Amino acid sequence: MRKTKIGLWGISLLAIGLFSIGVSFSYNPTSEDTQNLNSLKSQLDLLIVEDRVNLWDFYDQLKTLEVEYDEDSRLEYMLWNLKDYIYGRLFTFKTADKVSSESFKQEFLSWYNTGFSLELDDSLQNCTGWYNTLDDISFAYNFPTALTIATWYRESTCAYYLPNNGDGPFQIVNEDYGTWEITQAQFVDTVEDFMEFTKSKFDRYDGQLTWHLSYTGFDLTGISNFAALYNGGIKSGDVILPNNENYLFDGYGVDFSGATRYGIFPQFIKALERELDNEY
Question: Which pLDDT value is given to residue 217?
Answer without folding.
Answer: 96
